[in-house]
């Protein structure tokens, strides 16, 4: 049996956040006896913030960094978003987080262990363990997702096979040094199973420095809640009172937005000890846009153009309340009714810019978020976001869906200019004039010479509504 080392400082406490992590730890213990598994660590990413590491497996020729996901049922995934079909909840592709952590971990080990400095190639590999699922994720076309994704039933054998194919025998020679080097990392913050005997915690995700999203259930009513937990002790530049005031402003802004019908309901915030401020949010109804297949018929496209007009109207309403989302992707738009009258909501305001409150852009920049939907100006800094930045992100989502192209084809990276595909070739049965107007609209958004020359969401909504009306005729 492999040696399991928990990073938990309190030996009497439960070292694992979820039941899925417990199952994964028990399974990884079945690995070869000379292998070492280190759990629940934090790695300094070099920018003043840390990356969470669920499991680090030190094998003979490799090191595996594994992120545990206790998702159930069928998972629909592409290179950017993973969606749980049962509830429509989506997250960014966790493989990207694991791969990012693997690169940082390899750099840390090279700095700390001289004999590894000359080790060429990848010797730390990122992967994801699905501890509660019986099937691998599938792409929208039904093929298996590429990458190091493991089911609990065969994770040990697959890790052994992968390690035998690798060629870094130095790992085995310095395994004790690696063990000590990683054991000395900081322990991951504890997450309780309950909060104030009101909420049962089911899952925990770090969304930006000092902010965690806990998926929870309200005990007495068995209702789901998303708990935004703000750590008031992590910012050396602000006092607890200053941070609490900032988050109260954010709460008020989101509460005011609820009247628009385009954001989820927020409940009254509360203090959790002296260090944490908690904002409960009622999860939006329906499923995220990423859970809906792209349109495959003219009728479906026309319907979705009308839905898009409604989405831009909602975005305009949000901007009227002096809030810029800054993190719109297919997983942040929830559709409760995909036909007129459309009902949709924007969620995940963790990166939102509230113009009446102090900025969080420094924290966002430090995250080094690899968000393929962000406007190019956000690459320079989240503080440069304007209303048109949200327009760019929402339009890119729609262009991907309506063109049938992969995002990497439309935009190889966030520096490159967005490619406008031939929409007429994709929709030959639809009128040339209307498709030309749609292409021109995308051009004004993606190829505008400056941010100010991009159209505002209200103007985009009006144009899309006219195009949809013309197509219906």
Question: Can you describe this structure?
Answer:
It contains 14 helices and 21 strands. By secondary structure, the protein is α+β, with helices and mostly antiparallel strands. The strands form five sheets. Strands 1, 2, 3, 4, 8, 9 and 10 form a seven-stranded mixed β-sheet that branches. A six-stranded antiparallel β-sheet has the order 11-12-13-14-16-15, with helices on one face. A hairpin with a 5-residue loop joins β19 (333-337) and β20. α7 (298-320) packs antiparallel against α10 (387-403). It is globular, with a radius of gyration of 23 Å. It starts with a strand and ends with a helix.
Secondary-structure blueprint of this entry?
Layout: E1 3-6, H1 19-28, E2 36-44, E3 50-58, E4 63-69, E5 75-77, E6 81-84, E7 90-92, H2 94-112, E8 124-130, E9 149-151, H3 155-165, H4 170-173, H5 175-183, E10 186-187, E11 194-195, E12 199-208, E13 211-218, E14 223-231, H6 240-258, E15 270-272, E16 276-281, E17 287-288, H7 298-320, E18 323-324, E19 333-337, E20 343-346, E21 353-354, H8 361-366, H9 376-380, H10 387-403, H11 407-410, H12 423-426, H13 432-446, H14 457-472
Parallel strand pairs: 1-2, 4-8, 8-9
Antiparallel strand pairs: 2-3, 2-10, 3-4, 5-6, 6-7, 11-12, 12-13, 13-14, 14-16, 15-16, 17-19, 18-21, 19-20
Helix pairs in contact: 7-10, 7-14, 13-14
Structural class: alpha+beta
Distance between the termini: 69 Å
- The percentage helix is 25-40%
Spatial shape: globular
C-alpha Rg (nearest Å) = 23 Å
Q: Beta-sheet strand percentage?
A: 15-25%
Tally of separate helices: 14
Spans of at least 5 consecutive residues with low confidence: 8-13
| Mean pLDDT metric | 85
**Number of distinct beta strands:** 21
Major sheet, described briefly? 7 strands, mixed
């Amino acid at each position: 049996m492999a040696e399991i080392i928990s990073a938990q400082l309190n030996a009497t406490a439960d070292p694992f956040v979820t039941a899925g992590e417990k199952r994964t730890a028990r399974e990884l213990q079945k690995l070869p006896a000379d292998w070492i598994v280190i759990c629940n660590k934090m790695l300094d990413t070099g920018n003043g913030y840390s990356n969470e590491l669920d499991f680090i497996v030190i094998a003979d020729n490799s090191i595996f960094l594994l992120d545990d996901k206790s998702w159930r049922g069928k998972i629909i995934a592409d290179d950017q978003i993973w969606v749980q079909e049962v509830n429509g909840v989506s997250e960014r592709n966790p493989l990207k987080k694991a791969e990012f952590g693997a690169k940082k971990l390899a750099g840390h080990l090279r700095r700390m262990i001289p004999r590894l400095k000359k080790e060429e190639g990848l010797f730390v590999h990122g992967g994801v363990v699905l501890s509660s699922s019986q099937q691998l994720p599938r792409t929208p076309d039904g093929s298996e997702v590429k990458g190091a994704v493991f089911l609990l039933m065969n994770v040990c054998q697959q890790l052994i096979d992968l390690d035998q194919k690798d060629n870094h025998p130095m790992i085995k020679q310095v395994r004790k040094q690696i063990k000590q080097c990683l054991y000395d990392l900081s322990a991951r913050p504890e997450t309780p199973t309950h909060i104030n005997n009101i909420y049962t915690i089911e899952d925990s995700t770090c969304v930006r420095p000092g902010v965690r999203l806990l998926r929870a259930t309200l005990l007495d009513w068995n209702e789901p809640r998303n708990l935004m937990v703000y750590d008031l002790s992590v910012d050396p530049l602000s006092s607890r009172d200053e941070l609490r005031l900032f988050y109260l402003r954010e709460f008020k802004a989101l509460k005011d937005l609820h009247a628009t019908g385009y954001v989820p309901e927020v409940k009254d915030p509360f203090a959790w000890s002296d260090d944490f401020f908690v904002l409960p949010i009622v999860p939006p109804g329906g499923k995220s846009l990423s859970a809906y297949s792209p349109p495959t018929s003219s009728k479906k496209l026309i319907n979705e153009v009308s839905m898009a007009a409604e989405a831009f109207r909602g975005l305009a309403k949000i901007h009227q309340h002096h809030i810029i989302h800054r993190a719109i992707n297919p997983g942040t738009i929830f559709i409760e009714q995909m036909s007129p009258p459309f009902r949709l909501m924007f969620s995940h305001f963790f990166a939102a810019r509230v113009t009446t409150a102090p900025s969080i852009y420094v924290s966002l920049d430090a995250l080094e978020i690899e968000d393929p939907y962000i406007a190019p100006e956000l690459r320079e800094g989240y503080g440069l976001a304007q209303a048109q930045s949200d327009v760019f992100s929402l339009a890119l989502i729609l262009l991907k869906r309506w063109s049938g192209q992969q995002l990497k084809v439309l935009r190889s990276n966030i520096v490159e200019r967005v490619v406008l595909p031939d929409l007429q070739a994709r929709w030959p049965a639809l009128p040339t004039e209307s498709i030309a107007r749609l292409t021109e609209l995308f051009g004004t958004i993606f190829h505008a010479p400056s941010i100010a020359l991009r159209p505002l969401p209200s103007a985009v909504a009006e144009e899309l509504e006219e195009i949809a009306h013309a197509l219906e005729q």
